Amino acid sequence: MNLPPDKARLLRQYDNEKKWDLICDQERFQVKNPPHTYIQKLQSFLDPSVTRKKFRRRVQESTKVLRELEISLRTNHIGWVREFLNDENKGLDVLVDYLSFAQCSVMFDFEALESGDDGAFDKLRSWSRSIEDLQPPSALSAPFTNSLARSARQSVLRYSTLPGRRALKNSRLVSQKDDVHVCILCLRAIMNYQYGFNLVMSHPHAVNEIALSLNNKNPRTKALVLELLAAVCLVRGGHEIILAAFDNFKEVCKELHRFEKLMEYFRNEDSNIDFMVACMQFINIVVHSVEDMNFRVHLQYEFTKLGLEEFLQKSRHTESEKLQVQIQAYLDNVFDVGGLLEDAETKNVALEKVEELEEHVSHLTEKLLDLENENMMRVAELEKQLLQREKELESIKETYENTSHQVHTLRRLIKEKEEAFQRRCHLEPTARDLESVGSEALARIGPEELNEGMPPSDLDLLAPAPPPEEALPLPPPPAPPLPPPPPPLPDKCPPAPPLPGAAPSVVLTVGLSAIRIKKPIKTKFRLPVFNWTALKPNQISGTVFSELDDEKILEDLDLDKFEELFKTKAQGPALDLICSKNKTAQKAASKVTLLEANRAKNLAITLRKAGRSAEEICRAIHTFDLQTLPVDFVECLMRFLPTEAEVKLLRQYERERQPLEELAAEDRFMLLFSKVERLTQRMAGMAFLGNFQDNLQMLTPQLNAIIAASASVKSSQKLKQMLEIILALGNYMNSSKRGAVYGFKLQS
Questions:
Q1: Checking phi first, is residue 90 left (phi over 0); if not, alpha (psi -120 to 50) or beta?
Q2: Which of 501, 653, 681, 728 measures 20 to 30 Å from 596, CA to CA?
Q3: Position 474 confidence tier, pLDDT thresholds 50, 70, 90
Q4: pLDDT band for position 60 (50/70/90)?
Q5: Which residue numbers delimit the GBD/FH3 domain (predicted)?
Q6: Residues 175, 269 contacting (CB under 8 angstroms)
Q7: In the prediction, which pLDDT does 514 show?
Q8: Any bridge partners for residue 592, and if so which?
Q9: Distance between CA atoms of 685 and 673, rounded to whole angstroms?
C-alpha cells in the first residue's frame, strides 16, 4: 500500500475485523477516472489557441480538476500513480508545465505588459538569454559550481521561448485561484512514493518550478514549497539540486543575491508562524547538512549578508516553541569564523610555545642524563673501590683467623710439651733412687746366686740384655714395691723424643682445617629431617661457611632439650587423622566431586573467605571489579585456575546432562570459573591493577635500600653466627641419615 511508517504503524494496531473491513472496502473501491482523463483536461488548459472567452469558461473547473487529481494521487493504489507517471501519459511533465503556466503572471510584470511598456518586454527578453554565458566565481567550491551549471542548463531549456500576450493573460486568470497551491499538493502526493520522488529528482524542471512557487502570495503555499524543498535537500544529491534551483530562481526573478526573495518573505511574513517555522527549518537543512566546512561557512555567509542573524536575534524570543527550536538549532550550529581564527592563532602560539618548551626540556634532559651518567660512573667507581676494600678486609680476616688458629695450636703443643717435661723432671730423681737401690741389691746377692736360681732358657734370655736393670722384676719378696717403678720408665721416656718432630703434624692440621672430616652424631631420639640443599665440600671455599665452626657451637647448646622439643611423635595421631579423613569422606559421599580432594578442600576454604556466590565472583572477574573481589582474594584464587584435565572432566559431566545439583559446591564453582573467557589473562590483569599502586609505592624505597641492605648482609657478623647455628643444628639432625654437610644454599 506504500504507506508512510506512521500510517503503517497505526494500521497494524487495528484489530482483525477492522483490517478485513478495509480489505473489503478496497476491493469495492472503483477508480473514478483513469489518469489520461486528468492529463487531457490539463493539456486543454495549456492550449494557446483557445480564445480568452472560451478559456474563462474552462478555467472555472481547473481547480476542481486539480483537487480531484490530488485526491486520486493520494488515495488510489500505486498502480494508478505509476500509470499516471509512465512514459505514455507523462503526467509529471504535464503537471510541471501547468504549474509553470499558472505562476507565469507572477514572475512577469503583467501590468506593464498590458499597458505596452517596452521596458517590460526588454525584461522579458532578458530571461531568454542563456545563463551558460555567466562565469561562475572561481572561489566557490566544486559542489556549488556544479549546481550553478546544472541550473544554467535547466534555465536555458525552460526559457528559450517567450510566452505570448494571450498566455500571460490566461496565466493571470489562473494565478488568482488556488491552482498553484493544489499543484504543489499534487507534487507532494507524487513524492510520497519512492518511485515518484525519484522522478521528481531526475526531472529537469520540476524542482525549479517548485522553487519558483515561493513567489505565490499564499503563505500556506510557500510553507508547503519549503517543506518539499527541505525533503529534496536531505537525500543524496539533493543539496546540489536545491542550490541549482535557487540559482535559477535568482536569474528568473532578477535577484542581486541568492536567497534574497526567501529572506524578504521570511522577514515580511512574521504573522504566519507556520511559514516562518518551515523557512527556518529549510535554512537549517541547507546550511548545516554540508560536510565541507568551507562550503558550509560560505552558505552561512550568504544568509548572514542578507541579515539573517540580526533578524534571528530579534525573533528568538517569539512565543512559538517550534520556531524557537529552529532558531536555537541554527545559532547552536553556526560557525564563528572570527572565533575559529582566534582559536587557530592561539593554537599556533601555543604550539610554538610547546616546541620551545620541548626544546628546553630536551636540553635539560640531556644535561640531566650527563649528570646521571657522571654520578653513576662515580658510584660505580666507589662501589668498585668498596668491593676491593672488602676483599682485602676478608683476606686479612682469613689470614688473621688462620694465624690465630696456628698460634692456638702451637700454644697447646708447647703447653703439653712443658707438662711432659715437668713430669719427666719429677720422675728422674725417683729413677735414680731406684737405680741405686737395685745396684746395692745386686751387689749383695751376686751373679752366681742369680744364675743358679734360673732355668737355662731364662739365662739365654738374660744373656743378650746388656743393662743389669732388666733383672729388676725378679727381686726377692722383701722388696715388692721395687718392680713396678721400672716399667713406667720405658713408657714415659719414649714420648720425649718425638717432641721436636711435632711441627709436621701441626701444618697438616692447619692445612686441613677448612675441610675437616666430620663424624656422624648419634642422637637419643629420632629427629625430623632438616630439608636443605647441601653444598659439596669443594663448594665451601669463598662462602660464609668457610669461616664457621658448627662443632664448637654444639658444645654451647642444650642438645637434650633440643631433642625433646623436636623428636618425632608417636603413631597415635596419624591413626586419628585417618579416622577423621574416613569420616569426612563418608559425609561428602552424597556429592559428586571431580576435583582432587586436597585441591577441593583448599578451594572451599578460599571461597568461604570471600563470602560471595560463584555467580558474583565470575561477574566481578568479567567486569574487573576489584571492590567486590579484593586483590588478596584474587591472588589466592589464581592458585585454583582450572587445569586442562579438570576442564575436560567438567565439560564431559556437562555433556552427559547429569544434574549440576549433585556436584559439590567447589565443582560447581569450578564449572562456572572455567567458562570465563581469557580467565588467566583477566586474573593476572586484576592482580596487576590491584597491586599497582602498592608495588609502585613499595618498590621505590626498596630499590633504594637494596644496595645498603646487601652491603649490610654481607658484612653482618650476627648473620654469620645465625647461619653457623643453623648449620650445626642441621648437621646434628641429619648426621645419622644424610651425613654432615659443610654448607647449604639459602634458597632451601
A1: left
A2: 681
A3: very low
A4: low
A5: 1-428
A6: no
A7: 46
A8: 663
A9: 16
Q: Which amino acid is at 743?
A: G
Whether the CB-CB separation of 223 and 278 falls below 8 Å is answered with: yes
Residues 65, 46: Cα–Cα separation, whole Å: 14
DSSP three-state, residue 95:
helix
Give residue limits of the domains in the chain: 1-30, 34-256, 265-335, 338-502, 572-699
Task: Give the chain's mean pLDDT.
Answer: 75
By the 8 A CB rule, do 62 and 177 touch?
yes
Residues 6+ apart with CB under 8 A from 174: 45, 59, 62, 101, 102, 105
Residues 173-185 have a mean pLDDT of 75
CA distance linking residue 594 with residue 596, whole number of Å: 7
> In this structure, which long-range contacts are made by residues 252-257, counting pairs with CB atoms below 8 Å and at least 24 apart in sequence?
252/107, 252/127, 252/155, 252/159, 252/212, 253/107, 253/212, 253/215, 254/123, 257/302, 257/305, 257/306
pLDDT at 107: 54
User: Of 270, 243, 268, 269, which Cα lies nearest the Cα of 258?
Assistant: 243
Instruction: Note whether 449 and 466 are within 8 A (CB).
Output: no
Whether 194 has a pLDDT exceeding 50, the answer reads: yes
The C-alpha cell 572451599 sits at 604
**How many angstroms separate the first and last alpha carbons of the chain?**
87
3-state secondary structure of 258: coil
User: Which cell numbers hold the place of 557?
Assistant: 647448646
Calculate the CA 633 to chain-centre distance: 22
> In a 10 Å sphere around its CB, with 0-12 CB exposed, 13-18 middle and 19+ buried, how is residue 720 labelled?
middle
Cell (9 digits) for 336 = 564563528
* Closest to 682 in 3D by CA, of 644, 602, 674: 674
CATH fold of 572-699: Methane Monooxygenase Hydroxylase; Chain G, domain 1 (1.20.58)
Q: 143, 240 in Cβ contact below 8 A? A: yes
pLDDT of residue 558: 83
Using the predicted structure, report yes or no on whether residue 638 has a pLDDT greater than 60.
Answer: yes
Q: How many CA atoms lie within 13 A of 369 on its CB side?
A: 6
Contacts of 91 (CB under 8 A, 6+ apart): 35, 38, 39, 84, 85
Quote the CA–CA distance of 725 and 375 in Å, as a whole number.
41
CA-CA distance, 514 to 441, in Å (whole number)? 59
